[in-house]
Amino acid sequence: MAVSGPIPGLSRRARAGRLWRIGRGRSIARLPTRVWLLLGIALILRIALVSATLYTPTTLDAADFSRNGLSIAQGHGIPPSNRAPGGGPSAYRPPAYPVFLAAVYVVAGQEAPPAARMVETVLGTVSVALIGLIATRLWGRRIGVMALGIAAIAPPLVVLSTTLVSEALFVPLVLGAVACALQARRSPHPLRWAVLTGVLAGVAELTRTNAVVIWPLLAYALWLAGPRRSWRGRLRPLVVVAVATLTVAPWTLRNWLVLHAFVPVSTEIGYTLAGTYNAASRAETHWPAVWKEAEHGASPEYGQILFTADIDHWNEVTYGDALQRQAITEIRQHPFYVLKVLAFNAIRMFHLGELDFAVDNLRDTDIPEVPAWLEILGFYPIGLLALAGLALGPVRRAPLWMWLVPVFLCSTLLVTGFIRFRSAVDPFLVMLAALGAIGIADAAKVHLSARWPGPRR
Q1: What whole-number distance in Å separates Cα of residue 76 and Cα of residue 70?
Q2: Alpha-helix residue ranges (DSSP H) falling in 60-112
Q3: Does the model's pTM come out above 0.85?
Q4: In Å, what is the CA distance from 346 to each residue of 275, 288, 366?
Q5: Quick one: how far is CA 214 from the chain centroid?
Q6: Exposure string over 282-310, b if 16+ CB within 10 A, otherwise e
Q7: Angle made by CA atoms 111, 116, 121, in degrees to the nearest 5
């Protein structure tokens, strides 16, 4: 039986979202005990996982992030490129996460990936708190606590938040920006929240380059946060975009001065596109349309680029631009292949098939086999409950722009189905799962009451 309309049992006070009203009559110390308990469980589970996998070798992307962080911690800045044959200055990795690692390494006094992962347990717990806060703001206390509880123990959120990759920082930044945009609707000073939203959106872009796709959504959210036809109404979305741009601008200026090219954040676009849009990926039958490292000779049509880059010692910008031009040529020559890429990457990212890919891909993110299977199997209950939540009326209480945030972040499916890129989508699935769980519980309660009515008084 489909359940629609307001969820039964929510009082007006709960619907007003007064669970975590911090700064106006209630302090953070007066949060309900069950909230603190759930946050404690979230932190303990993440610490336990890191402790159990503390000495997992650091490889591939994690090792490169750590290399960048160590170089910054030692005062050398971003290290030379290990992508371009000619070496030279690099902007391949967006800087925010390496700076985070550098801060940990400075405190630790050495390169210490285990220490960084321990700090990430706190970031993961902050993400859990933000999920509960957003859900409470939108649907009230009951849904907020349910979302908090699911986020605290859900294996995908526990596992993916404790790996040495940029998503550990990216997820709380995205959730923080969304929470600030929602708070602007309730505040008498939405312009202040517009500034904070812009800062978080800018730092998110400096963490992962696809954050820019949600800037228009956040700007639109701030436009809706008050009177829209006044000059203040027109100013709010401009402030979001302007502040986000100014946050990114120092890094862009650094790239201009060092690389002598306009690189807003990263040079990785060409390298990334070439990994999917090549003959070898198109011909792959075991994992169709899978991402391969074209710059390492995985596909023959990039051979001349690789040869010339090696002979002429191309720098990172020249090399990346050449790879990007070839990838765009591949897309133009095989336009329907884009749909194949999208379909198979969605299958991989959401564990609809090719689970052997998921295990291998998570291993490449330094996640051992047992936690990898926990992440995979733990995703299915969340996914099923999220589908149930989509069928319920309360889902419409959240603004459309918020639901478009995970949709826009899924733009990575046009390139790759790496599991860690789903990290920023999972919190929104958890909120839907909380709606689904409460809706199912209420429907079951109504059904049981009708079948076995209690004694009349």
Answers
A1: 9
A2: 60-73, 96-108
A3: yes
A4: 17, 12, 22
A5: 11
A6: bebeebbbbbbebbeebbebbeebbeebe
A7: 170
Residues 82 and 197: their CA atoms lie apart, in Å, by 34
Structure tokens at 240: 């979001």
Query: CA–CA separation, 49 vs 162, rounded Å?
Result: 8
- Each of the 457 residues of the chain gets a pLDDT tens digit; together they read 333 334 444 444 444 444 444 444 444 557 788 999 999 999 999 999 999 998 888 899 999 999 999 999 999 999 999 888 888 999 999 999 999 999 999 999 998 999 999 999 999 999 999 999 999 999 999 999 999 999 999 999 999 988 999 999 999 999 999 999 999 888 888 889 999 999 999 999 999 999 999 999 999 999 887 766 676 668 889 999 999 999 999 999 999 999 999 999 999 999 999 989 998 888 889 999 999 877 666 677 888 888 888 898 999 999 999 999 999 999 999 999 999 999 999 999 999 999 999 999 999 989 999 999 999 999 999 999 999 999 988 899 999 999 999 999 999 999 999 999 999 999 999 999 999 999 998 888 877 776 676 565 5
Q: Give the Cα separation of 295 and 300 in Å (integer).
A: 10
User: Token pair for residue 382?
Assistant: 């969340």
For the chain, what are the domain ranges?
12-451
* Cα 207 to Cα 65: distance, rounded to the nearest angstrom: 11
Q: Which residues contact 449 (CB under 8 A, 6 or more apart)?
A: none
Give, for 147, the enclosing helix (H) or strand (E).
Answer: helix 141-153
Please give the single-letter amino acid code of residue 283. Answer: A
Q: How many CB atoms lie within 10 A of CB 399?
A: 16
What is the signed CA dihedral for 149, 155, 156, 159, rounded to 10 degrees? Answer: 120
Q: Give the Cα separation of 373 and 159 in Å (integer).
A: 10
Q: Which two tokens stand for residue 399?
A: 């603004």
Q: Around Cβ 450, how many Cβ atoms within 10 Å? A: 8
State which H helix or E strand residue 138 sits in: helix 113-139
**CA distance linking residue 361 with residue 353, whole number of Å:** 13
Q: What is the chain's alpha carbon radius of gyration, rounded to the nearest angstrom?
A: 23
* Beta carbons within 10 angstroms of residue 33's beta carbon: 7
**In the block, residue with structure tokens 């700007």:** 219
